Amino acid sequence: MAEPLNFQSVMAELTNFQNAIGEIHANLRSVKHKEILGDMLDEIRSARAEVEVEFPKAINLIEDTAQKVMAEAKQELAKNEQMRAELDRKVAASKAAPQKAPVPPPKIGVKVDPALGQTLRTELLERFGLQTDANTAKFSKIREAWQDWG
Description:
0% strand, mainly alpha, single chain, 72% helix
């Protein structure tokens, strides 16, 4: 794995690059090429000046943000550990406490007849009658399904 670059080594390499381009620029004879290379050197110098100002700001911002995130994470961790300890205490207390019998639901003042099902059956049979063979005859034969629709 490659070793991470640090800011000073990158800036030193950029200085070496600028010096090499500067030497080439000084030795050029073509005015057109000298002008193009001079513009490029100006851009490099401008970018370098901006990097020298903005890079430390960015690093400081990253470090500040990282510290804030770590502080928040530690607070959340402490809060979670406290909640877990509280839950562990509650679980231990519930295990230690004697188990209570479930409380039956309160009885409503309505009395239910135990023979209600039989009474309802008798009433329905009296009201609608028994199914006779005459009533079920048209459905008792095995036929095509569409024939039963009529």
